[in-house]
UniProtKB/TrEMBL annotation:
Keywords: Transferase. GO terms for molecular function: quercetin 3-O-glucosyltransferase activity; quercetin 7-O-glucosyltransferase activity. Pfam families: UDPGT. This is 7-deoxyloganetic acid glucosyltransferase. Belongs to the UDP-glycosyltransferase family.
Length: 477
């Protein structure tokens, strides 16, 4: 924020993601796109995540219009921040005033010519308190929603399902089909809804809290959506009926690459909460084309030692080389990787704490991706044309898995985590049904390419978003 280079006529966007890696990564990519378009962007994290982010200075070198700030989330320093209920419940009382204070301070700095005044806020759609702050300060706000359109559409219909008596569930049949939601007939099961829908008391505070948090995005100036029209057009159109404006801009990482070219590869791992292990790329270089199974269960999934051992046996027994991400904190029982896994690494695989995922996905050696059905991972698989095996864990993972296996038919669901099932599923994906899945995912990859190309839906929506933000600036002036 050095004053000599600040252009006071720039539109100034303040962005605030939820605390998880996947939320930070994709919203940061959007921030990079906006800054590349000439907007002044302030990207806000909690103090804890700000300290963990890698090479922010390198990012600001690539994007001079991109600036970073941090605020306290109000939790003690020694809080594990894995109990999301604590974080969600504390946001309105602890995080909200700190965020508001930051916005006020940025506008004070603008009076001294150190930055442009704040034009608008882009807040993560899972949190409503940025909307309340924007309303208090009279600043327009857009919501960014990082999951699939189908999941959000299902979420919007929770009050309807409550009214019809489909929620709460009074038995334990989680495969029972949900009916009456346009566009999701025959697809949605109880297990595909958010976990809190399984609570037996419908007036439970947690149900009301999360429904209100999500419905708040309908009160914003627009919804920026991490999906693309060709992939989910019916659900996108349904969601659009609830929002004043809707901008589908995914796959955002691919859109960024299309906008900035070769620079994208050098910044792909910047802004990661974990140190990236680059040596795995050299290992991939030594493997045959489309032979490797990449295994990564994201930033929040936790596994027991017994589960890890079963995965190890299944991976080794499949006969395919594998690259496996086991991040710090991923093991429930202990932090030490069992000796069996170390042995497996020497025999056929490569185990890392964290991998440069976009680079891995684009590698010619990759033949399949075993993941937790996180939306970012699915989009990255589609862009790279890599079929996948889904092992859903929580949140939107279950409905994402349904889309992968039933709608787009670009992968398989892992029905159980015993070694025989894992081995059999990998051999099916990589062997007997390889051509079938490859043909389907290549088609989806072409959809993604079309939408980020000049004149494509995501490219045009990004242009529209930038124009609308600059229009707010012009109105204010």
């Amino acid at each position: 924020m050095e004053g000599s280079k600040v252009k006071m006529e720039q539109a100034h966007v303040v962005m605030f993601p939820f605390i998880l890696q996947g939320h930070i990564k994709v919203l940061l990519s959007l921030g990079e796109l906006l800054s590349e378009a000439g907007l002044y962007v302030t990207f806000v994290n909690t103090h804890q995540n700000h300290k963990r982010l890698a090479n922010l200075q390198a990012l600001t070198t690539h994007f001079p219009n991109l600036h970073f700030e941090s605020i306290s989330d109000g939790l003690p320093d020694d809080h594990p921040r894995t109990l999301f209920q604590d974080f969600f419940e504390g946001m309105k009382t602890k995080t909200k005033p700190n965020f508001k204070e930051l916005i006020v301070s940025l506008n004070k700095k603008s009076e001294n010519g150190l930055c442009p005044p704040v034009t608008c806020i882009i807040g993560d759609g899972v949190m409503s308190f940025p909307i309340e702050v924007a309303d208090d300060l009279g600043i327009p706000i857009f919501s960014f929603y990082g999951t699939s359109a189908r999941f959000l559409w299902a979420f919007f219909n929770i009050p309807k399902l409550v009214e019809e008596g489909q929620i709460p569930f009074f038995d334990d049949n989680m495969n029972y089909r949900i009916h009456g939601i346009p566009g999701l007939e025959g697809l949605l099961r109880r297990k595909d809804l958010p976990e809190f829908c399984a609570l037996k008391e419908i007036d439970h505070n947690m149900i009301n809290f999360f429904v209100e948090e999500t419905l708040a995005i309908t009160k914003t100036s627009g919804l920026i959506f991490n999906t693309f029209d060709e992939l989910e057009i019916d659900s996108v159109q349904n969601v659009a009926t609830k929002c004043s404006k809707l901008y589908t801009v995914a796959p955002i990482n691919a859109l960024l690459q299309s906008q900035i070219g070769p620079r994208a590869q050098s910044i792909a791992s910047l802004g990661s909460l974990w140190d990236v292990e680059q040596n795995c790329i050299k290992w991939l270089d030594s493997q045959p084309s489309k032979s490797v199974v990449y295994v990564s269960f994201g930033s929040i999934t936790k596994s027991s030692i017994s589960q890890l051992k079963e995965f190890w046996h299944g991976l080794v027994d499949s006969g395919h080389p594998f690259l496996w991400v086991i991040r710090p904190g991923a093991i429930l029982d202990e932090e030490v990787i069992p000796k069996e896994l170390e042995k497996g690494q020497k025999e056929r695989g490569y185990v890392v704490d964290w991998a440069p995922q976009e680079e891995v996905m684009a590698h010619k050696a990759l033949g399949g991706f075993l993941n937790q059905s996180g939306w970012n991972s699915i989009l990255e698989s589609i862009v790279a044309g890599v079929p996948m095996i889904c092992w859903p864990y929580s949140g939107d993972h279950f409905i994402n898995c349904q889309c992968v296996t039933k709608v787009w038919k670009i992968g398989l669901e892992l029905g159980d985590w015993d070694r025989l099932t894992i081995k059999t599923t990998i051999k099916e994906l990589m062997g007997s049904r390889r051509e079938e899945f490859q043909e389907s995912v290549d088609k989806a990859a072409q959809w993604a390419k079309n939408c980020i190309s000049k004149g494509g839906s995501s490219s045009l929506n990004l242009e529209k978003l930038i124009k609308d933000i600059k229009g707010i600036k012009e109105i204010k002036v």
